[in-house]
Amino acid sequence: xxxxVIDRYGRNEVLRFARxxxxxxxxxxxxxxxxxxxxxLNPIDLSMRSGYGATALNMKRDPLKLNSEENEFxxxxxxxxxxxxxxxxxxxxxxxxxxxxxxxxxxxxxxEAASLPYVxxxxxxxxxxxxxxxxxxxxxxxxxxxxxxxxxxxxAVQLGKAWGAHVTAVCSSDASTLMKELGxxxxxxxKSGNLEEQLKILPLFDFILDNVGGATEKWALDLLKKWSGAxxxxxxxxxxxxxxxxxxxxxxxxxxxxIGSKTLKHLCKGVHYRWAFFMPSGPCLDEIAELVxxxxxxxxxxxxxxxxxxxxxFLKLEYITFWLLYKNCSSPIDLLxxxxxxxxxxxxxxxxx
Length: 353
What we know:
Elements: E1 3-6, E2 15-18, E3 32-41, H1 43-49, H2 54-61, E4 75-76, E5 80-88, E6 100-101, H3 110-113, H4 117-130, E7 142-146, H5 151-162, E8 166-171, H6 176-181, E9 186-189, H7 195-200, E10 207-210, H8 216-220, E11 231-234, H9 239-246, H10 248-267, E12 272-275, H11 282-293, E13 303-306, H12 310-328, H13 332-335, H14 338-341, E14 349-352
Parallel strand pairs: 7-8, 7-10, 8-9, 10-11, 11-12, 13-14
Antiparallel strand pairs: 1-2, 1-4, 3-5, 3-14, 5-6
Protein name: Reticulon 4 interacting protein 1
Organism: Dromaius novaehollandiae
InterPro entries: ADH-like_N, ER, GroES-like_sf, NAD(P)-bd_dom_sf, Quin_OxRdtase/zeta-crystal_CS, RTN4IP1, YIM1/Zinc_Alcohol_DH_Fams
């Protein structure tokens, strides 16, 4: 089968087109083989192309280190696909060959559907699994989405509105129209003045989703309602970087110390501080599909590329991401944090094959 792979970590030149990669084989009874019709790129794929998260992924790939001489290359990048099931493992009962997974919203094309899983499940993880909000308790709550014009942000805005929340979206002026179309109640242009001061004049919030990080974390928690269960959730964490830099054991220890100290510090001030990550979940994807089919959530795609144009898609995404990050940087020190949170921002880029 044709595939775009990398044989080492690096910049765009490491991408290689392979015409005759072996078809994937089912190794465990709970696996399926999917014929991919479309895939999407997210900013995390840029980071992973350069080796971000390699330690954790290699541990997951071979937790017992049974294949000491085997490495991850050639490695196929990408997190999101939409396609059709070709083959099922023996214990798979939910899917059958011919099904469009997972299950694809009936109203969407494969290209549109491929843009949803990673950003949708990341936003769902932050708002529902970590933040504790759902359709029953979200009505009337005040939500603030920092970095609302990215893939996770656009989904989070729509999810909050679908669940009846009042949503304030922070983005640049060129995305304000999109935010209104997605249902945001208030749209704040972070370049029209001091963002902290603009937000301080608004009523306090019940929940904040931070896709930006950096200096934002220093003041954003002051915008929460104290001693009410209000929660700040950030997607900008050092978890995988700590593991890449320090190794699995020391990296996890350092991460635990960091999140523990921050949680305790803010708990004493009457607010909850949390980290969130992408969490794979079939049942959550099914709920997302229901929201899409009911018209409450729509995919947001920046551009569509053919399969032969994958390197162009990476370059376009790289440009968008660094441009957004540069616009958000307020000092040279902020520029140093780009490598930390590049994976949380940017638009959706879809490739079709």
